Amino acid sequence: MIEAFVAHRNLLFTVAYEMLGSAADAEDVLQETWLRWAEVDPDQVRDERAYLVRITTRLALNRLRTLKRRKEAYVGPWLPEPLLTTPDVAEDVELAESVSMALMLVLETLAPTERAVFVLREVFDVGYDEIAAAVGKTPAAVRQIAHRARRHVDARRPREVVSARETRAVLESFQRALEGQDLQGLLDLLAPDVVLMSDGGGVKQAALRPVTGAGKVGRFIIGGIGKAAVDLTGTPMTVNGNPALALHVDGSFDGIMAVRVEGGRIAGLYYVRNPEKLGRVDSETPLTLR
Predict the structure, then answer these.
(1) Phi/psi at 244 (nearest 5 deg)?
(2) Residue 264 three-state SS
(3) Is the per-residue pLDDT at 40 higher than 90?
(4) Nearest to 287 by CA among 255, 246, 240, 251
């Protein structure tokens, strides 16, 4: 029983994380999954992976309802909890996109069951019968939900999939502009309709609403650094399967900046400053998600 759980642990964590957007809550779901699994008679289990995924999905769906209430009371924009991941995750293009900040925010717009079905079907290619058992629907209903969820996500997901190499190159230029407080250099990198979302959770200072437009975003960033009179530096990392920057203010870790690149420019900036979401990135070893 232990061997089966350990063998599928990374998969189960990723399923829970993609459904919840919170690594801490995903870990709690895994703990509950293990407790349920330990009580199961192994002779009654034909497919260990499917059985474990079913338990994890049901527990994650229950937790989603609690998280919804928590997010409604959240101060400012809510961003997923960043995950420090191994560089090889970026080589799995579909997996890297599915855990990216940009797509995780799209998944937030789905109803709980739609999100579960989308994650299981589109990311992990779980069969309709297995999904139906996990979410308590008929296979026919799951097919309809999957189609609806896919259409919803496709209409909102990033328009192009950008390689890790291209994102890394843009990030390097972005880092130079930040560290040099080069407003024009930053503006040259930003798409005209770029959106900046910053998550301080009411604990750290952050914009209470998304900042939109290259001029406003550029001035917000460079003006903020100048006004605070701090030394801002960046360290390249792989976060959520994609290149990102760990930003340090006067030598102290301050947050994670993830980006969405389109057409060689930055179309989305996602800055997580909430300390409650940064413990895993600052101290833990990188995760392998499958």
Answers:
(1) -155, 180
(2) coil
(3) no
(4) 240
Instruction: Indicate the pairing of strand 265-272 with strand 190-199.
Output: parallel
Provide, rounded to the nearest whole percent, the portion of the chain with pLDDT above 70.
97
The residue ranges of DSSP E strands in the chain, in sequence order, are: 190-199, 211-212, 232-239, 242-249, 252-262, 265-272
What is the arithmetic mean of pLDDT over 13-35? 94
Q: Are 195 and 212 in contact (CB under 8 A)?
A: yes
Amino acid of residue 199: D
Question: Residue 138 phi/psi, 5° resolution?
Answer: -80, 155
SS3 assignment for 27-85: HHHHHHHHHHHHCCCHHHCCCHHHHHHHHHHHHHHHHHHHHHHHHHCCCCCCCCCCCEE
pLDDT of residue 25: 94
The two three-digit tokens of residue 208, written as one number: 């209470």
- Cα 32 to Cα 37, 47, 60, 183, 278: the distances in Å are 9, 19, 10, 49, 23
Spatial neighbors of 287 by CB under 8 A, at least 6 apart, are 10, 13, 83, 84, 85, 86, 89
Q: What is the mean pLDDT of residues 14-39?
A: 94
Three-state secondary structure call for residue 151: helix
Torsion over CA: 87, 242, 85, 251 (sign): positive
Q: How is residue 112 annotated by DSSP? A: H
Q: Is pLDDT above 90 for 9?
A: yes
Average pLDDT over residues 140-146: 97
How many other β-carbons are positioned within 10 Å of the β-carbon of residue 57?
Answer: 28
